[in-house]
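RECORD TYPE: inverse folding
INPUT: structure tokens
STRUCTURE:
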């Protein structure tokens, strides 16, 4: 519901962001909720869209922190819509203390849309009470694990067990803003020429080993020279490792088993002239693969299908290379998808692991002898990564693990250059 305030006001942005946060808490993904917002308000200027998105992402990154504050500022939990607005406004207040007066007033204006303004006084009282007790509350939050690290307690405990030397750095990275990495389309432009175009457009960059280009400051894709014409893609530097590790060559038959939204699919096609089949269990997401390839001038066979149901999509011809970028907890990309902290439950990890094992077993059937399968996740949890691959290799006598950078597997932890990813390269013995 929209109040009487202007679409370019902070009140409007707070209201729309709070709606998105509320939908995430109710179980919907942030991408879905923001897409619905853009459809409802198709004429929003880029600056307004950016403000709504920034507010929603900031609020969701602070998982647990603002609930901690509200538990000390209120006697009982408010209705869901009010809770979402307060979470969003409290995040803004702590991030922009110099704008406190404006934030409070605009949040109260946004509260006009809730139950005919019934919660205006409550919103005003809670936010002003927070400002009065700010130092005390922030000091208390340091002593509360979920509030301090802004992750669910079970998530923190798992990372502490898996990474006793680096769990704190991982959590800090999960609360940061992600880097923006690009990949030039080598079918259309040389890497050096594309980087020169970026420089010419006033965008400061640095190039990583492996070819990924990091922008010093993220920008809307509209500002990327040649993006609409297919000269480049936005893809995390860690994700760009997949196409290189799979080592596909011209003429090979390649399967991308869980392809959407198509970044790795496109990178494989840019790397070699291959016969590629891209699958995705979600027909809507499979359309995104088609759209991405069309923009880049690339071609592949795209089939909406669950890769575990081999009989529904396989024509009997074995694949030389298979990319299994399996569904996972997304614990390695949580700064890019902060809604995962609200949506995931600890019991979900076992469910993801079960599906991952089923995918590996199914895909191994269609891999040619001597062929390679790259198992990939954007997870940091061992149950989805090393333990999953070890269990699979133990039950497949013809599976040999190939080294990556001299190690049996590659676990990338999130850094300023890339998100968290896991890779294991498996060869089917002839």
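DESIGNED SEQUENCE:
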């Amino acid at each position: 519901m929209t109040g009487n305030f202007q679409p370019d006001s902070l009140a409007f942005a707070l209201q729309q962001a709070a709606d998105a946060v509320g939908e995430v808490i109710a179980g919907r993904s942030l991408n879905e909720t923001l897409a619905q917002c853009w459809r409802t308000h198709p004429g929003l200027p880029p600056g307004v869209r950016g403000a709504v998105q920034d507010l929603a992402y900031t609020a969701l990154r602070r998982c647990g922190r603002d609930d901690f504050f509200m538990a000390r500022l209120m006697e009982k939990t408010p209705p869901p819509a009010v809770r979402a607005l307060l979470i969003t406004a409290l995040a803004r207040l702590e991030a922009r203390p110099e704008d406190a007066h404006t934030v409070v007033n605009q949040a109260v204006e946004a509260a006009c849309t809730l139950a005919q303004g019934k919660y205006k006084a409550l919103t005003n009282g809670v936010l002003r009470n927070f400002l009065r007790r700010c130092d005390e509350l922030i000091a208390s939050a340091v002593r509360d694990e979920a509030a301090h690290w802004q992750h669910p307690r079970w998530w923190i405990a798992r990372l502490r067990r898996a990474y006793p030397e680096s769990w704190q750095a991982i959590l800090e990275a999960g609360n940061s803003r992600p880097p923006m990495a690009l990949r030039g389309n080598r079918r259309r432009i040389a890497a050096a020429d594309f980087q020169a175009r970026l420089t010419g457009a006033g965008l400061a960059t640095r190039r990583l080993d492996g070819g990924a280009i990091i922008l010093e400051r993220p920008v809307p894709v509209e500002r990327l020279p040649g993006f609409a014409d297919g000269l480049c893609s936005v893809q995390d530097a860690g994700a760009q490792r997949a196409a290189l590790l799979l080592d596909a060559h011209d003429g090979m038959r390649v399967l991308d088993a869980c392809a959407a939204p198509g970044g790795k699919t496109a990178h494989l096609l840019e790397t070699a002239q291959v016969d590629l089949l891209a699958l995705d269990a979600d027909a809507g997401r499979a359309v995104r693969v088609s759209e991405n390839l069309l923009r880049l001038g690339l071609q592949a066979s795209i089939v909406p299908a669950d890769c575990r149901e081999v009989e529904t999509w396989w024509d009997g011809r074995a694949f030389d290379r298979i990319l299994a970028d399996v569904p996972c907890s997304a614990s390695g990309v949580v700064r890019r998808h902060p809604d995962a902290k609200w949506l995931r439950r600890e019991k979900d990890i076992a469910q993801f692991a079960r599906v991952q094992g089923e995918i590996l077993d199914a895909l191994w059937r269609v891999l040619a002898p001597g062929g390679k399968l790259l198992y990939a996740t954007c997870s940091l949890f061992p149950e989805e990564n090393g333990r999953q691959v070890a269990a699979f290799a133990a039950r497949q006598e013809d599976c040999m693990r190939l080294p990556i950078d001299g190690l049996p597997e590659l676990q990338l932890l999130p850094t300023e250059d890339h998100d968290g990813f896991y890779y294991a390269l498996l060869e089917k013995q002839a």
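NOTES: The chain has three domains: 10-150, 180-234, 241-428.
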